[in-house]
Amino acid sequence: MKAKKYVLRNQFVGFPKKSDVEMVEEELPPLKEGEFLCESLYISIDPYQRAYLVEVGNVVLGSQVARILESRNSKFPCGRYVIAYYGWKTHGIIDETSAGVGFPPRLIQDPINHPISYYLGVLGMPGATAYFGFLEICHPKPGETIVVSGAAGAVGHVVGQIAKIKGCKVIGIVGSEEKGRWITEDLKFDGYINYKLHNISKTLAALAPEGVDCYFDNVGGEISNDVMKQMNLYGRISVCGAISSYNSIEEDKASIVQKTMIFKELNMEGFRVFRWLHRFEEVITQHGKWLAEGKLKTKETITKGFENTFQAFTGMLNGSNFGKAIVEL
Ligand SMILES: NC(=O)c1ccc[n+]([C@@H]2O[C@H](COP(=O)([O-])OP(=O)(O)OC[C@H]3O[C@@H](n4cnc5c(N)ncnc54)[C@H](OP(=O)(O)O)[C@@H]3O)[C@@H](O)[C@H]2O)c1
């Protein structure tokens, strides 16, 4: 059987170029004992595909919702759906120990009450990042003021809504007016800052004169420094991502955050979502319930066709996605 995959031809330098990857065909070998053959239905497009470097010649990193077409592993039977991590491929032969970016394959459990692509977004890794990264690090209390950057993205739009569910006031930072309208009008955030248009310090001071108690940071850089300066005593910062620097070719320059941290006695913690891998089912249950109750909404930006995967990736880096960026095969 023939399959297609994207292989890295050059390390990304600056913004990724089409010539950095190549789509090639491969003949799949017969299954060995313990292996199963998966057909990708949806591929997840994520910032880590830019941030984590693989070696030239290897498949571009990535996860997918796949259907098991053939199996020599009784725990992963034919016909079941699985969340797998075999990269940008139409098909993958894996076993239960195959762990791309640190995650082994997981069967999707019945009943499946939501679109299956949600297992790459609100019910998957980005949803878990929002849930644990916000609740376990920021410990939000009702009435507190929360800022989330990357607020219209896969992680950010969920963080803001969890904050609303917990009784907080939420300000989102986004890259367009359309995204600002989406998070305030549809998702009920209390305000937004368009970092491409507004002065962050002035706008934040106007939107949150009481100061910021928690900051969920998806982007890093100067946006985050501006937010930190307006934090209240004992504020908490969850450092999730630093996408503002992923495509940079210059050496990172440090702004001095230590004085702010000392005088405001802030608590800043970075995390990788693998920390809570053993609790991912909790997110499926809780987010599934909030979705059913209408307390949590989600959006997907779906690009059709495996041949458009690279375009979906650069689109996400440029901010074209509302909610979760996904390729449908
Ligand atoms: N720690 C973890 O375990 C973990 C897990 C998942 C994700 N992450 C991180 O969380 C962040 C969000 O991930 P995601 O999957 O939810 O991606 P996403 O927000 O759905 O997509 C990326 C978004 O980043 C924004 N962006 C691009 N360049 C930017 C810049 N220079 N400054 C500010 N914003 C920029 C764009 O939105 P705009 O239109 O608003 O610019 C774009 O839509 C990323 O930094 C990612 O690496 C971390």
TrEMBL record:
Keyword DNA damage: no
InterPro entries on file: ADH-like_C, ADH_N_2, ER, GroES-like_sf, MDR_fam, NAD(P)-bd_dom_sf, PTGR1
Domain Enoyl reductase (ER): 14-327
Pfam families: ADH_N_2, ADH_zinc_N
EC numbers: 1.3.1.48, 1.3.1.74
The organism's place on the tree of life at top rank: Eukaryota
Localisation per UniProt entry: Cytoplasm
GO MF annotations in UniProt: 15-oxoprostaglandin 13-reductase [NAD(P)+] activity; 2-alkenal reductase [NAD(P)H] activity
Cellular component terms (Gene Ontology): cytoplasm
Transmembrane regions: none
Keywords linked to the UniProt accession: Acetylation, Cytoplasm, Fatty acid metabolism, Hydroxylation, Lipid metabolism, NADP, Oxidoreductase, Phosphoprotein, Prostaglandin metabolism
Record note on quaternary structure: Monomer or homodimer.
Protein family: Belongs to the NADP-dependent oxidoreductase L4BD family.
Name the record gives this protein: Prostaglandin reductase 1
Species of provenance: Cryptolaemus montrouzieri
